Amino acid sequence: MKTKIAIVDTMFARGDMGKVAIETMEKNAKENNWEIEIMKKTVPGIKDIPVALLNLLEQGCQAGIALGMPGAAKVDKTCAHEASLGIQEVQLMTRKTVLEVFVHEDEAKDDKDLAEIMHNRASKHALNLLWVIFKPEELEKRAGSGERQGRENTKSVGL
Amino acid sequence: MKTKIAIVDTMFARGDMGKVAIETMEKNAKENNWEIEIMKKTVPGIKDIPVALLNLLEQGCQAGIALGMPGAAKVDKTCAHEASLGIQEVQLMTRKTVLEVFVHEDEAKDDKDLAEIMHNRASKHALNLLWVIFKPEELEKRAGSGERQGRENTKSVGL
Amino acid sequence: MKTKIAIVDTMFARGDMGKVAIETMEKNAKENNWEIEIMKKTVPGIKDIPVALLNLLEQGCQAGIALGMPGAAKVDKTCAHEASLGIQEVQLMTRKTVLEVFVHEDEAKDDKDLAEIMHNRASKHALNLLWVIFKPEELEKRAGSGERQGRENTKSVGL
Amino acid sequence: MKTKIAIVDTMFARGDMGKVAIETMEKNAKENNWEIEIMKKTVPGIKDIPVALLNLLEQGCQAGIALGMPGAAKVDKTCAHEASLGIQEVQLMTRKTVLEVFVHEDEAKDDKDLAEIMHNRASKHALNLLWVIFKPEELEKRAGSGERQGRENTKSVGL
Amino acid sequence: MKTKIAIVDTMFARGDMGKVAIETMEKNAKENNWEIEIMKKTVPGIKDIPVALLNLLEQGCQAGIALGMPGAAKVDKTCAHEASLGIQEVQLMTRKTVLEVFVHEDEAKDDKDLAEIMHNRASKHALNLLWVIFKPEELEKRAGSGERQGRENTKSVGL
């Protein structure tokens, strides 16, 4: 039986992160013989993500990804915070992992940079989610290593 | 059987967004032969919206719209945040979508601008809610396209 | 049978808003032949309001009013936010409306102004709560009209 | 049968508020012939208070006090906010009152002042909690009177 | 039967706090003849901690530790706050203690300092968690004593 994975993205975002996430997942799943089935839904904005995810997870998805792009204004930051709290709640209600892939519009210097961050973060987290489901030891061996999504990794400090 | 839709608005707001939302829904429902029945309730202010919505959704509405206008003061922003968290909770309790249509008083340059933003956002989200219920493929095909409600759309960046 | 209404106020507040709310409710209830019974409780500060309200609502009150006066310091604003989130939760747990009547100490120019705001807001919301319970059409017809509690109403903008 | 009261304090705080609270409660309980039994627990920091309180309240305590001292840094303020939200939740889960006695380190001019605020607030709220349980009319008659814990009372304004 | 303890850490953190926590626990457990079994999980970032902890606690762990390193940017602080609220919720759902060991990247002067804080805080809280489970009297006798994790202790003020 295939493992169902939920992806929810928005009309508001300025780039098709859903497409990137799906391509990354399908490529990696194929290489590793992981049988997956992606259930995707698009909502207007980030605050509409939590209930859409809850529905997909309760319809049998084993884990999910939330893709969104909060704007640069203060009110957008508040929206992102509210969406994130909703996503926390959804995870605790379902006991299932949802990786949140939010790219803040003001993280980027320009549109090219924005596109790169969106691509980098969506693809890395798509792979992370597969590891959460199929290969947790990939996460274990990177514990405390300074992994980043969206930019280059940073370095670890010896304890 | 008609699909029931909940609309909750406030006395506090400085424009009748409920009327705009209803007109938009009825016009579009008629054009598409979608049978809808709108259940509307008015409450004093935005913090009174969540419980009113919960009641309407538990009385059979399939989805809802929250219409409000937070003021420009800091305390009003906090109120909006509290109302938004309540609306998140209502959606997770009922598993039903509620689109939040808040127009912040300080988004606008003047009263004319305020009226335009209120009209634009209320009508666009009224249509979005119909799509959520009856035609999700309209949302799917706009994924990551930079759609905005209240102002003009922005542009997408290639990933 | 009389309709029970919960009122919770605090020792911390610098004015007896509970007295104003009760007088307004009793006067209006009498004029309209609405049979009400008020159950009132006083707690130390605003953060003690939510659980007191929950108890009164679960003991049969149909709706409630929370009366409080947050101080001017930043920590007081945070307390008010926490109390408000608790009041949201209480409403969603009980499916009952609670109108929050908070007067922030720094809204006022001086003590006289503070007294006026407290009186105005407490009495207007006391009447609003009666409308929520007995006469929702009074709220309906004021939708989007710019009603304010504590100060004068503002004006509506045509959409 | 004795009424059980929960007290939770922290190792982080810079003063033994638990001792003050217990002494105040035992003295007042004796004078009024109120039979109480105090169940006390110490946790590392304020964010560890909510679950400890929940356990004590579910083990039969009728009400509780949370004693903590948030530091002056911004991250400490956030911790206090998170702890306070947890304490709100605990009260709504158990339907029992918990008075939160937090003394922020930056409320005080110096160590002597800090000690005085801690003593004043802990003892006043210890008495408040006894009133909540045994003598609510003491709270009722101080409604809107400007009572403060930690500093001198302020004055009420006529409405 | 061994007491199971949950540890969740992240790939994002720039130091292997999980290793420090485990070493501290195993050393102290051995010295005191406490039988423990550690169940450890690594997740991408701090917001992925709450649901992972919930799963481990529901699989039989009696208590847990959350190890994370929020970055210095404002968005990282918001993430930390959201993770902390999730951890609060997990504790209240399970009635079990989770000590949160977050080291903010901007607490440190440089990488060496960061490593020292991470080591100090992880080891001290690892011991605290053992005390919570096996020897609460160690916590009791340090009530209000100004204990710190990450830096040196501060001093207590006489009340």
TrEMBL record, chains A, B, C, D, E:
Enzyme class name: transferase
One Pfam family, short name: DMRL_synthase
EC number: 2.5.1.9
Catalytic activity: 2 6,7-dimethyl-8-(1-D-ribityl)lumazine + H(+) = 5-amino-6-(D-ribitylamino)uracil + riboflavin
GO MF, one example: riboflavin synthase activity
GO CC terms: riboflavin synthase complex
Recorded superkingdom: Archaea
Keywords from the UniProt entry: Riboflavin biosynthesis, Transferase
Keyword Membrane: no
InterPro entries from the UniProt entry: LS/RS, LS/RS_sf, Ribfl_synth_arc
This protein's pathway: Cofactor biosynthesis; riboflavin biosynthesis; riboflavin from 2-hydroxy-3-oxobutyl phosphate and 5-amino-6-(D-ribitylamino)uracil: step 2/2
Any one Gene Ontology BP term: riboflavin biosynthetic process
NCBIfam families for this protein: ribC_arch (TIGR01506)
Protein family according to the UniProt entry: Belongs to the DMRL synthase family.
Protein name: Riboflavin synthase
